[in-house]
Design a protein that fits this description.
Radius of gyration of chain A: 22 Å
Helix content of chain A: 55-70%
CATH superfamily of one domain in chain B: Phenylacetic acid degradation B
CATH class of one domain in chain B: Alpha Beta
Number of helices of chain B: 2
Largest sheet of chain B: 3 strands, antiparallel
Structural class of chain A: mainly alpha
Strand order of the largest sheet of chain B: 2-1-3
Radius of gyration of chain B: 21 Å
Protein name (chain B): Ring-1,2-phenylacetyl-CoA epoxidase subunit PaaB
Distance between the termini of chain A: 53 Å
Oligomer: heterodimer
Strand content of chain B: 15-25%
Largest sheet of chain A: 2 strands, antiparallel
Strand order of the largest sheet of chain A: 1-2
Bound molecules: fe (ii) ion
Distance between the termini of chain B: 64 Å
Strand content of chain A: under 5%
Organism (chain B): Ruegeria intermedia
Structural class of chain B: alpha+beta
Shape of chain B: elongated
Number of strands of chain A: 2
Number of strands of chain B: 3
Number of helices of chain A: 13
InterPro entries (chain B): PaaB, PaaB_sf
Shape of chain A: globular
Largest interface: A-B, 27 and 19 residues
């Protein structure tokens, strides 16, 4: 998912006795599935946690355009190019929907952008991995968007109205993303032996980073319990990861590709696949800034922001002049 | 000086004959650019045939604390609904 390791503000779930009357009324609304809207009262910790979570989600959509954008000019056919272009454009849209949702909580767009650019806010670890060839673009749509969907579908029911509405819009567009990825990698899996090898290699490299997207196990975390009580987190990380594995294994089998996990096997008793956890030390290292592409990604975002300044300022100045001219003419 | 583009609220008419509906917001330097951006952000899949943009700070909203005084009075006026009245079957459709 695109929001990982979000630190929930506060000290964990309060009992009803510990809550103020306002807090109790707020929790009752959430329990009754009544949406919280921007002007409604909300605990400061709920607001702060949501800004972190929605902000990180938005940043992930924006930074996530970079690994895929890398292959737009080199797509193998004009059709694939048009499809990838539309997909990447959707991701820009997802970022915008989410930034707008975060802004309703009292943070400005520029503040959010600056926090991404100077590293105070993060984006998903997955986008710090490179896309080395065209097969990777298929793998990203299939696995990365697939993992994102796992998390985004339940979040449509989240308690904060603007966030929920953004998720509903996003989910409508996501299944196209996953399908185009699966379609692209399928073409290669069914192609020449060399293409097949590329498809397998892409799966090998993206499998564990995709599993990391859900974040480390949080089933015993008091912070997660609070986020779940607020309905800004709906499932535990382990639940979503298991669901993703169960869904993805048959998809790989259909392609004749092998999941790079010798211990992966169906567990009849549990009704789920058993699988190997990713290397969490690698995950923490990537989060800290030491993944293969962290430096590149942040440099690209900073460059775009700096290079675009004259356009932003120029258009604003032009709008001011136009307004002044109109007033003078009246 | 703060140089952030203002926020615009976007309303889109989905199909001919329907009202414009609020779909979200975006930043743009002026109304013209807001419409252009709204086209890219909110109508990528044929969602609209017409766009309205309104600068967000021109919108006045009711406050959540006024919910009682504003909407409660209508709760007791059940006779405003046609189902309140029993019409004899013999009368036919009404
Ligand atoms: Fe997305
Ligand atoms: Fe996507």
């Amino acid at each position: 998912m695109y929001a990982q390791m979000i630190k929930t503000a506060g000290t964990g779930v309060k009992s009803r006795e510990e809550m103020t009357e306002q807090e109790r009324a707020f929790q009752d609304k959430i329990d009754a599935d009544i949406k919280i809207e921007p002007k409604d009262w909300m605990p400061d910790d709920y607001r702060a946690t949501l800004i972190r979570q929605i902000g990180q989600h938005a940043h992930s959509e924006i930074v996530g355009q970079l690994p895929e954008g890398n292959w737009i000019t080199r797509a193998p056919t004009l059709e694939r190019k048009a499809i990838l272009l539309a997909k990447v454009q959707d991701e820009a849209g997802h970022g915008l929907y989410l930034y707008c949702a975060a802004e309703t909580l009292g943070v400005s767009r520029d503040e959010l952008t600056e926090m991404l650019l100077d590293g105070r806010m993060k984006y998903s670890s997955i986008f710090n991995y490179p896309t080395l060839n065209w097969a990777d673009i298929g793998a990203v749509g299939w696995l990365v968007d697939g993992a994102a969907i796992m998390n985004q579908v339940p979040l449509q029911r989240t308690s904060y109205g603007p966030y929920s509405r953004a998720m509903i819009r996003i989910c409508k567009e996501e299944s196209f993303h996953q399908r185009q990825g699966y379609d692209a990698i399928r073409k290669m899996a069914e192609g020449t032996p060399e293409q097949r090898k590329m498809a397998q290699d892409a799966l090998n490299r993206f499998w564990y980073p995709a599993l990391m997207m859900f974040g480390p196990s949080d089933k015993d975390s008091v912070h997660s319990a609070q986020s779940m009580a607020w309905k800004i987190k709906i499932n535990t990380n382990d639940e979503l990861r298991q669901k993703f594995v169960d869904q993805t294994v048959p998809q790989a089998e259909y392609l004749g590709l092998t999941i790079p996990d010798p211990d992966l096997k169906w567990n009849e008793e549990r009704g789920h696949y058993d699988f190997t956890q990713p290397d969490w030390s690698e995950f923490f290292d990537v989060i800290k800034g030491n993944g293969p592409c962290n430096t590149d990604r942040l440099a690209a975002r900073n460059k775009a922001w700096d290079d675009g300044r004259w356009v932003r300022d120029g258009l604003l100045e032009h709008a001011r002049k136009k307004r002044a001219r109109k007033v003078a003419a009246e | 000086m703060k140089n952030e583009w203002p926020l615009w609220e976007i309303f889109i008419r989905g199909q001919h004959g329907m009202s414009h509906r609020h779909v979200g917001s975006l930043h743009a330097p002026d109304a013209e650019m807001a419409i252009k951006n709204a086209r890219d952000v909110y109508t990528r899949r044929n969602e609209g045939v017409s766009i309205w943009v309104v600068e967000a700070n021109n919108i006045t909203a009711s406050s959540p604390s006024d919910k009682g005084p504003l909407y409660e009075p209508s709760e007791s006026k059940v006779y405003r609904h046609p189902t309140f009245f029993d019409i004899p079957e013999e009368v036919g459709a009404m």
